[in-house]
Amino acid sequence: MFDGPFDVFALIIAIVAILIAIKASSQAAELRRRFNALEERFSAQRPVQPPPLTPFWEEAPVSAEAAAEPPPLAPEVEQLPPLVTEELSPPPLEASPAAAAPPPVPAAAPGFEERLGTRWVVWIGGLALALGGFFMVRYSIEAGLLGPGVRVFLGGLFAAALLGAGEWSRRKESISNIHALPIANIPAILTAAGTAVAFATIYAAYALYGFLVPATAFVLLGIVAMCTLAAALLHGPALAGLGVVGAFVTPLLVSSGKPDYWALYIYLAVVTAASFGLARIRLWRWLAVTTIAFAVLWIFPGLDTEQVEVAPHAFHAIAGFVLAALLVVCGFMFGPEIEDGEIEPVSSSSLGAYLFGAMLIVLSSAHADLALIAFALLVGTTLLVAWRAPAATGALGAAAATVFIVFAEWAVRANPDMLVLPGGAMSGIGPTAIDSSVTLHLVMAAIFTIGFGVAGFLAQGRSNSAIIPVVWSAAAVATPIAILVALYARIAHLDRSIPFAILAVLLAAAFGAATEALSRREDRPGVAVSTALFATGTLGALALALTFALEKGWLTIALALMSCGTAWISLQRPIPVLRRLAAIFAAIVTARIVHDPRIVGDAVGTTPIFNWLLWGYGLPAASFWGASVFLRRRADDAPLRMVETAAILFTALLAFMEIRHFATGGRMTAAPSLLEFALQVCVSLAMAIGLERLRLRSRSIVHNVGAVVLTAIGGLVSVFGLLILENPLIWRTDVGGAVFNLLLLGYALPAVLMLLLSYAVVGQRGKVYANTIAGGALLFALAYVTLEIRRFYHGPILSTGPTTGAEQYTYSIGWLAFGVMLLGVGILVNSERARLASAAVIALTILKAFVIDMSTLTGVYRALSFMCLGIVLVAIGWLYQRILFRRQVAPPPAPQTGA
Q1: 414 with 367: CB under 8 angstroms?
Q2: What digits encode the pLDDT tens for the residues 492-541?
Q3: How confident is the model at residue 81 (pLDDT cuts 50, 70, 90)?
């Protein structure tokens, strides 16, 4: 494309000339803008000139007194404002207030040309300088012009020239009256380019030519990075970002056959200290965050090997944690100042990040003793730092979370060689005398429990902020309970354990004492919520004691009892958070039964009613009903509705699960039957009636919705279960005895309950809703009459055998008698609904007589069917005329006499 080197250089010179011209044009535009601003400023300060003096010959006539007055003296004439021009003299110093303080002229937004000439060109120029150094080295290699040593020397010389130019330009600007633009600082750009070239030159001398051994290259690159960070004090944040990235990337550029983690982490400690120090001096939060992110990432190398070198990794975590505590945490040692009572995110997250790193070392080293000790030291130091510096209080959450993860992972690991199984009542409790890992874990558990608990209690009332004591109390409650659960899972294998139950009772007693002590204190910010948290911890520890001492299913019961206990405590201590906690416990128990509806798996038992379902569902249901009573005394809010929902749910599930257990003989996975469907319909309707009565007093939306849902469930099961899936007319089902049988339970009793439910909702819900339920009652009553007649002719199996003429005649007589009975009831109690139901049944009987009886019956049965129907219809007509709608006969009119 180009004929020779001269063309290349000519192109370069042309590009440089264009850039210089653009820069000159931008400078001229800047000077023009400044001149215009100064001109507008002087124009705003220009005084108003007085009108010219009127000539004596143009004056108006004056009075004699005025004409007799002598002319004014010269000093009085001098009081007139001087006539000045803008070109000859500046405005007088004694200007008016408006002139003395002119309104500031708003600076015009930089245009495209200004941005191009003062900003973009500078950045592109710096990048071009750096790339020029790289490409020059590459060109010399490809062309073979210079030897490796000369190339490295020239690269270093070019880097030094750029660094010198950056420093020279910085000093020139510092003594001039023109300040550099903050986003296009030419000295900083030159220095950054020189730093980049220096990095590339040293790396090329090490990796490409082998002039430097790894140790020397590592040291030189580190020196460049540290010098870059130091130069950032003078040149700004861009150079600091380049320096910190270069410093942390340097170990990746220099590699050796056997990694030396001690040298790596000592170097990173120096880099971290320099970066934190720079961030502290210049108050660059982003630099501290970037340093922490890189430092935590450097924990990962070496953790995936079989033999993790714990000591250097632990040193890296401890060194970074200490430096962060000294220089980053606000209000602690050399950290920045902050307002008292405020939790600062960077202060808390910096400690939490190194706690996370220490946790990774523990998990990767299979809980080595040194890793555990280092982790324990960092957790303890976190408590100390958070105690002295409230800005780092957020790190308590990270400390509690990492402690739980460490112990939970140890529990999941479940190595049986680390446990003692002596047998007997104390089976699975306690480590061996020589098992240092278990012993160390137990010692750490005791230290963490006491440390978090005591510190969380003593921290109450120390701060004027409400959130800080709450964080302390939450960590004080959650951490001991989490540790106790992890140890129970690891050592007792989730079996019964009286020693762990005793520990849980002791923990509950400690939380209870803290609750009482805080309740007697004066009202301070956050103390009320902390008191509620300690009270909740008391209930939680008691629930764990029940869980540890009893079977697994008692955990569900214990959590449900916690809901009731928390609701009761909310009456004694009206703390809003307690109401929400009661609802949370109810939600946890509900989620628990979703996981295993049988509560205890296959160990439900075969005894009807009195089995694990009664305790697993009955006690939580009673607990939730009690909690709802306690919560309703204060307010009708979301927590109350959640607890009421749980109460209705567990009551219904208790009934349904017990019915299934009874109907299947304890085989919970067996197919449903007519008995099960019949009992479910009866129970659903009975509970719906109870909720309809209850909602009239409570006015609770939960009771209202619950009644509708249970009614819908009863209706669906009755239609699809009793009339379709398990209908004895369709399927071969043994209905039992002549009178007391499944027909009475599955059709007669649901009809009665539907009738009662329809009367319960009359006037309270829509007319269609009540009439639909009443129609269901009529349908099931008629079905019972029909099925009972068929039971009389066919025995317990209704689906077999032909239908005789006598059976068809009996159906007609039975339906007719049922209709007459409904009419009698309607007349006695004056119920229009009963009379309408009677009319519907009689109409159905008439339809049967003309459609079925006329075609199937023969002989005497057909005659008797129509004769009885006719007699009944005539009798019904007579009853309606004589009793219900009897008309009064008007008396005859009196005879009229003639006039």
Answers
A1: no
A2: 877 788 889 999 999 999 998 998 888 887 777 888 888 888 888 888 88
A3: very low
Determine how many CB atoms are found less than 10 A away from the CB of residue 174: 11
Cα gap 77→81, rounded to integer Å: 9
What is d(CA 46, CA 50) in angstroms, rounded to the nearest whole number? 13
Q: 343: alpha, beta or left, given left = phi > 0 and alpha = psi -120 to 50?
A: beta
Q: What is the rounded CA–CA span in Å between residue 58 and residue 42?
A: 36
Return d(Cα 643, Cα 853) in angstroms, integer.
57
394: its two tokens: 């957020």
Beta bridge partners of 736: 741
Q: Amino acid identity of 74?
A: A
Per-residue pLDDT for 884 more than 60?
no
The SS3 call for residue 241 is: helix
- Other C-beta atoms closer than 10 Å to the C-beta of 235 total 22
The upper half-sphere exposure of residue 620, i.e. CA atoms within 13 Å in the direction of its Cβ, equals 37
Tokens of 369: 């003793």
pLDDT in tens, 595-620: 778 777 777 878 888 888 888 899 99
- For residue 157, what are its two tokens? 């010389």
Give the number of residues written for the chain. 899
Q: Report whether pLDDT(748) > 60.
A: yes
**Please, is 460 exposed, middle or buried when counting C-beta atoms within 10 Å of its C-beta (0-12, 13-18, 19+)?**
buried
Tokens of 409: 């992972």
**60, pLDDT greater than 50:** no
Q: What type of residue sits at position 54?
A: T
Handedness of CA 20, 21, 26, 31 (dihedral sign): positive
* Residue 654: partners with Cβ closer than 8 Å, 6 or more residues away: 613, 614, 617, 618, 621
Pairwise CA distance, residues 772 & 754, whole Å: 10
Percent of the chain that is helix, strand, coil (3-state, to 5): 70, 0, 25
Dist CA 498 CA 476 (whole Å)? 24
Structure letter (DSSP) for residue 79: T
The residues that bridge with 734 in the sheet, in sequence order, are 797
